[in-house]
């Protein structure tokens, strides 16, 4: 069985297999005669979208449309959205949905356009309607991303309880639980989210193994994809005269390994505090190669390259004797530093000039790999700025372990007990 799973995993990482899976998914339930004859064109479109090569995408989409294959509108809308051409993107995805109104990925794309054009309620109704046609958890993810305040959450939660009336009496699928929790946190209702995770952890105890979701094949991380994503961001930021520098695990990998750390799931960079998250988001929308993920904090912007690699952009605030950056639950402090260039992944990037001091403040003995290092508990220069979000993080880690058939970390359990959580 382990050999079988290893074989399947390797097969999924094959580019051709990945493209076949995507094409099959998008063509499922689409009535096209002799679908297979369009596969080469669809392969080229999907491949070019992950680079991206928008002119080639447009050309191949037009080939499909000229043959009456409406999926060309779907892919063309994706390309146009990446280029921030929202009106054109809406035109093409609306035309596609006229023929296939229950195509969930098409509805998600239109809902995103509506959200970006300040038509959030229209986006909510689109997503609410698609729930009657399929049970994809991704719909709840998109719905949760529409929540910005308490009234939004009330609307979301009413819909959620209609679909899952027993969510406080039974363990939910882990991803589904995350979507409800994220909606609450986006509405600043961290106490709801914390209470919810306490209940979910308790309900998950003693249940049969329920495998937690893995990232989609398109978001699996490797050095080649990461180098491409980081290089594209550098090229774009250089055009816009935006300075960024490597930090945290990405800097550690750069200095100690000369490459990205194997266990890293994203790239960490910093920018100075003359930029805001909203300003950066508006700039990134015009990049043509990055998606802006939902904003949870004024201190960090998360973006995803079209090849699936995620980059966390942290605003660095400069004070006389303290440079700091933050996320929802944590704040990290460093001694003031200058920047200098350093060769990494065949490119020149900026890093803290005294990287030894920076890494020592972040990791202590950074020269020696520490396999059990927990970035939330072991980082010397970190302080907790939101205890509820810190506790939510720990409960999520433990619930994820249970869903994956593993034993929760005794260390996480002890930290929760130290914070007054009753787990026994």
Automatic annotation (TrEMBL):
Which Gene3D superfamilies has this protein been placed in?
A: Tetratricopeptide repeat domain
Q: Which domain of life is it from?
A: Bacteria
Q: What is this protein called?
A: LicD family protein
């Amino acid at each position: 069985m382990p050999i079988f799973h290893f074989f399947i995993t390797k097969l999924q990482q094959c580019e051709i297999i990945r493209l076949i899976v995507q094409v099959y998914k998008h063509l499922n339930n689409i009535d096209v005669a002799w679908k297979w004859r369009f596969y080469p064109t669809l392969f080229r479109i999907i491949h070019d979208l992950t680079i991206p090569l928008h002119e080639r995408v447009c050309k191949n989409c037009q080939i499909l449309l000229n043959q009456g294959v409406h999926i060309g509108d779907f892919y063309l809308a994706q390309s146009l959205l990446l280029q921030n051409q929202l009106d054109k993107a809406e035109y093409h995805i609306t035309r596609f949905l006229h023929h296939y109104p229950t195509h969930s990925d098409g509805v998600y794309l239109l809902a995103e356009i509506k959200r970006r054009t300040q038509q959030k309620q229209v986006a909510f109704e689109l997503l609410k309607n698609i729930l009657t046609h399929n049970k994809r958890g991704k719909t709840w993810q998109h719905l949760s991303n529409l929540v910005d305040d308490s009234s939004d959450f009330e609307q979301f939660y009413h819909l959620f309880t209609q679909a899952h009336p027993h969510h406080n009496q039974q363990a939910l699928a882990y991803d589904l639980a995350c979507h409800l929790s994220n909606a609450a946190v986006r509405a600043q209702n961290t106490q709801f989210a914390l209470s919810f995770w306490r209940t979910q952890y308790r309900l998950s105890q003693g249940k049969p193994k329920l495998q937690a979701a893995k990232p989609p094949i398109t978001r699996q991380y490797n050095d080649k994809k990461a180098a491409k994503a980081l290089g594209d961001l550098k090229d774009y930021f250089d055009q816009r005269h935006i300075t960024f520098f490597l930090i945290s695990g990405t800097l550690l990998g750069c200095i100690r390994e000369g490459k990205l750390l194997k266990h890293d799931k994203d790239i960490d960079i910093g920018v100075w505090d003359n930029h805001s998250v909203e300003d950066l988001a508006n700039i990134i929308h015009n990049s043509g190669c990055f998606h802006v993920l939902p904003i949870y904090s004024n201190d960090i912007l998360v973006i995803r390259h079209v090849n699936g690699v995620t980059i966390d952009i942290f605003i660095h605030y400069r004070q006389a004797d303290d440079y700091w950056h933050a996320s929802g639950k944590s704040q990290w402090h460093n001694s003031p530093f200058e920047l200098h260039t350093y060769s990494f992944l065949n490119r020149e990037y900026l890093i803290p000039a005294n990287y030894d001091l920076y890494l020592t403040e972040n990791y202590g003995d950074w020269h020696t790999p520490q396999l059990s290092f927990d970035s939330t508990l072991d980082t010397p220069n970190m302080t907790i700025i939101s205890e509820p979000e810190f506790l939510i993080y720990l409960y999520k880690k433990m619930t994820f372990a249970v869903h994956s058939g593993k034993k929760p970390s005794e260390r996480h359990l002890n930290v929760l007990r130290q914070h007054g959580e009753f787990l026994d």
